[in-house]
Structure formats: structure tokens, C-alpha cells
Amino acid sequence: MSTPSPIEKLSSLLCRLPGIGEKSARRIVFHMMAQPEEFCREFAEAVRTLKERLHPCPECGNFTEEDPCPICSDPFRDRTVLCVVETAEDLVCLEQASVFGGLYQVLGGRVSPMDGEEIDPRILETLQRRIRENGVKEVIIATNPCVEGDLTYFAVVDALRGSGARLSRLAYGLPVGGSIGYADRVTLHAALEARRQVNDTNI
User: Is 97 buried (19+), middle (13-18) or exposed (0-12) by CB count in 10 A?
Assistant: First the structure.
């Protein structure tokens, strides 16, 4: 028995999302088919507006509808401390945990020679400019504890040599190969509190 093409098409698209396999995708599609038509319309509209209404903040790179984003424009944030994260998802996780009160810089990716990925030089230039203009005293490099995270960390450190800001890195209580996105509030708080300062011996 063949599956109707609309089901196959949506299933194949869902399979391209992280963590969703063929069976899970099919289960989601059939679940949606059992929902009221209004739900499916709202779902489709929400997906459509993601790209239409959201764009990277010109300052930090977080997804936003405003320029700059609410975090960058918040007068109560500590502008002397800046946290560098790989993705906007990592930023959201830190914000939801309420463990950091400074500003952020989203790299928009990581260094991965196997995948041919590297950090956009323009983002590193923006980071350097923000350090100068805001008088940033400390930059916390919050890359993930994996090979790619380490390579990204070294790339950021190299770009910020001579910036005058103190550089530090999160101390992790999660396993090597883990992700900020899966860490709980207590773990993230401990990682920030025990962050290690970067010096010539550990660069």
C-alpha cells in the first residue's frame, strides 16, 4: 500500500530536523492529521513567519524582530561582560536558566574541518568592535565541550589577542561531547561560577 504523497513529503522534510527519524516523522504527520484544521493552519503560519519576521540582531546575532534585540537594548544588562556562544539556541538556554546578566555574541556556527565549517570573519570583527566600544572587561567563551567546541574556542581566543579584555572559558559539569542546550540551570550556574581564565599556558 502506497502512502499519499503529502504525507511522504512532510515526513521527508521532518526527517531533516535534528533528532527526528523516519518513524518519528511519520508519527508526527499522522498526529497532525488527527488535529483540527485550524491547528494545522496555525502550525504552517508559525513556520512561515520564522524566516519572514525574524533576523539576526546586528549587534549580537541573536534572532529578533527588533534592531537591536531586547537583550542588547536592555539598559540593565552588564555591558562590561560578554558571553560568546556558538548558536542562538545556546543563548536562549543561558537566558532561560537566568545565570548570566551580561551581553552575548552569537558566532552562528563553529569550527569543524570535517564539515568545512569556520566562523565568519565578519562576526569576529563585530565582536572586536563591541569590546572596544563597550569597554568590555571580560569575555566568557561558552563553546561546547567537544572537539569542534575546542577548535572554536581557540579561534575566538586567537581573534581576541591584544583586545585588552580578560578571556575566560566555562568550566563544565557535563560530559565531553555534551551541549549547553542540554544542561540544566544548576550545571550552567556552576559552569559560569567556576569559569577558567585564559592565559598563555592554556591558550
Answer: middle
- Report phi then psi at 143, rounded to 5: -85, 160
List the one residue out of 35, 53, 33 whose CA is nearest residue 45. Answer: 53
The confidence band for 145, taking pLDDT boundaries of 50, 70 and 90, is confident
> For residue 15, is it within any domain?
yes
What CA–CA distance (Å, rounded) separates 147 from 155?
Answer: 12
Helix (H, G, I), strand (E, B) or coil at 166: strand
Residue 142 pairs in a beta bridge with 85
Does 105 have pLDDT greater than 60? Answer: yes
C-alpha cell at 58: 546586528
Predicted TM-score of the model (pTM): 0.81
46-91 residue pLDDT tens: 999 998 999 999 999 999 999 999 999 999 999 999 999 999 999 9
For the chain, what's the residue count? 203
Cα torsion for 189, 185, 66, 71, to the nearest 10°? -20
CB-based contact 91:62 (threshold 8 Å): yes
Closest C-alpha among 70, 73, 196, 71 to residue 140: 196
Q: Which CATH number does the domain housing residue 114 bear?
A: 3.40.1360.10
Total number of domains constituting the chain = 2
